[in-house]
Amino acid sequence: MKFLYSDTQDYVDPNYDFINDRSSPKRERYWDDVYAHELMRTPPYDGLLVAMSAVRKADGVASSKVRYSTAEEQRLLRVGARKFLRFDGKNCKDLMLMGDCGAFAYADQKEPAYTPEEVVQFYLDAEFTHGVSPDHIIFECDLENPPAAQMTEAARRSEITLENARKFIKLVRKEGDFFEPMGAVQGWSPKSMAKAAKDLVRMGYQYLAVGGLVPLKVDAIKVVLEAIRREIGPEPKLHLLGFAKADHIDQFASYGITSFDSTSPLIRAFKDEKANYYIENSSGGLDYYTAIRIPQALENSRLMQGIKRGLFDAEDLLKREQKALKALRDFDRNKGKVSGTLDAVMDYHQFLVLGEGEDEKTQLNALAKTRSRVERTLEDRPWKRCQCDVCQSVGVEVIIFRSSNRNKRRGFHNLGVYHQHVQNTLGKIS
Ligand SMILES: [Zn+2]
């Protein structure tokens, strides 16, 4: 089973100065920065997925989803996505490079943002190895299998997706089959998704991409996959689009999944409240750790507001911030105990919680919870055990929740651990 990472233009500055928290003034973003597959000797995924809506602004595409400037879009189409993403090194050049429309970005529109003609041209210019037919997302999935007549809007979207797929595969063949076409499956129930899958196989698709799974629970996804497999048999390959239940992937081995894409290992590094860093344990599961928040006092919006309104003293905060950093770095060098380090970290952290907002009891409660999570991180020192290129090169910085150069590196570490975990788990099952 291949794990693909959905590209969101995530790179870090390889020469970032962690002590002074700055990049070299000569650094040029993108050109000097490195992607995860450049920073790590073994790429932390089996391929990349690029969403057209992340690259090209179109009517109805949410601007927050567009990650490329016009110049970057033009360059990607001129040199191809592999070269643009520098995914052409000897470890990467043969890995899957898949395109899709990124239907989330235009989900609230009546029609998809791109026509099949436009999509095929985009995939050809980007030189993808695989491309998904243009789909229109359906959010609801009713396990009771209501008929199409009761689900007018969902049925309309399912019809658009199938009609697009019919046009798309013809165009791909006419152009000379330069990439493998993948048929997008959208439906409002297990039964309607299974029927759509069968229609796609009849059109000639041998690789299907199942969409609309993001909001579904693990058990509901299983019901959908069972229905699809019953209808199409074991042969056609399946890809799971935007698979958010990445941590449960071992439960899906029996459905014959060829590939899936997810951003969750990276995102959790800076979006999850408590599980920001994980590492595989001796029994093959993942142990989750909380990263240690020491934000830059003068860049953190809560702290800055407090300073502006006279609640906090800037100089005092900066002192505590430096004390927390020093304590943690000393601890990493075995010069200090868990208790003292924890005190220094929490002495600064309290300003992120106490003060205005919720009532005092809730705040004290939150603070106590964080304290025990941070204590566990310090006790276990997971960054010391990890053999990945990130942890080996930056050490304790990886566990500090502070500025994108640390947070993204932690995300890259998670991708590598997750990739290895998928291989280990599925290796054991097979
Ligand atoms: Zn690591």
Provide a descriptive summary of the structure in words:
It contains 16 helices and 14 strands. It has 430 residues and is of the alpha/beta class. The chain has two domains: 46-262, Queuine tRNA-ribosyltransferase-like (TIM Barrel), CATH 3.20.20; 286-416, no CATH class. Strands 1-4-5-6-7-8-9-10 form an eight-stranded parallel beta barrel, surrounded by four helices. The longest helix is centred in the last third of the chain and has 27 residues, at 403-429. The N and C termini lie close together (11 Å). Zinc ion is lined by residues 386, 388, 390-391, 413.
Notable traits:
alpha/beta, TIM Barrel, 8-stranded parallel barrel, two-stranded antiparallel sheet, 13% strand, globular, binds zinc ion
How would you summarize this macromolecular structure in one to three sentences?
The chain is an alpha/beta fold. The protein is built from 16 helices and 14 strands. The chain has two domains: 217 residues, TIM Barrel, CATH 3.20.20.105; 131 residues, no CATH class.
Report the radius of gyration as a whole number of Å. Answer: 24 Å
Shape field: globular
Give the tally of β-strands: 14
CATH-assigned fold name of the largest domain:
TIM Barrel
Q: SSE order, as H and E?
A: EEEHEHHHEHEHEHEHEEHEEEHHHHHHEH
Could you name the CATH homologous superfamily of the largest domain? Answer: Queuine tRNA-ribosyltransferase-like
Q: Helicity level, as a percent range?
A: 40-55%
The CATH top-level class label of the largest domain: Alpha Beta
Sketch the major β-sheet: 8 strands, parallel, barrel
| CATH architecture label of the largest domain | Alpha-Beta Barrel
Domains counted in the coordinates: how many? 2
